[in-house]
What we know:
Low-confidence stretches: 81-86
Oligomer: single chain
GO cellular component, one term: mitochondrial large ribosomal subunit
Radius of gyration: 50 Å
Protein name: Large ribosomal subunit protein bL21m
Number of helices: 4
Family: Belongs to the bacterial ribosomal protein bL21 family.
Shape: elongated
Largest sheet: 5 strands, antiparallel
Mean pLDDT: 79
GO molecular function, one term: structural constituent of ribosome
Order of helices and strands: HHEHEEEEEEEEEEHEE
InterPro entries: bL21-like (IPR028909), bL21-like_sf (IPR036164)
Structural class: alpha+beta
Amino acid sequence: MFSRSILRGFASELRxxxxxxxxxxxxxxxxxxxxxxxLRTTQQQSQSQPHSPNPETPLGATPRAQDTQPETQxxxxxxxxxxxxxxxxxxxxxxxxxxxxQPVAPTFDSPLEVTKSVMxxxxxxxxxxxxxxxxxxxxxxxxxxAGDHVxxxxxxxxxxxxxxxRFNRASAVGSRDFTLKGAPHVDERLFECRVRxxxxxxxxxxxxxxxxxxxxxxxxxxxxxxxxxMRVMDVRVKTPEELLEEGAVVVEDAEDTPKIEARS
Length: 264
């Protein structure tokens, strides 16, 4: 058996005599293989992409970011979309209102009967503008002239902004010096009063606490009413010529017929 010191010396002699085949540096054969593969791929790429001797644009002039919209040809033009125009002018008279927005004309079984006194004074009333009308809506009188804004004390159902309404119940129609009083109402074929619905308006929120006697429970009631807003478009009195064209009949004066009174 050899001692440990003899074996250690023998191993050191072998290490110095034959250098180790494993080293940290890469082998020259492996380096040549890698270099050959890199040269081969470079040659294939250069053959697939032909190189022009005189390029049109230099490499530095190529834009980095492209436009999102494609370029159109010079001969072709982009189609222009038609722009819709809306009429924002508020109509002032009945002639400015579309036909589909105008109210339906009422039908009557008998012709209009006008007394001689009303027919004689009607030109003075019709020729003196502006006119006013005391219209009644749900048994409430409203003094209206052209251009007034009216807020009804309720929300009128089945109406939309832009609708044209006709107030046909009035107790009086007049001007600065003349007044046509009805008995009790003026015939709606003698005048025209048209209003336009402009929208709705809401009041502030109301909160009211309710409680009963000898009870701790308190009930809270909340309410927020909405009202219909209107604008008077036209108030006018028809002339005798218009009434005769519509088929009016002149009758004698009576006690229960409308009369035109002059302001003294």
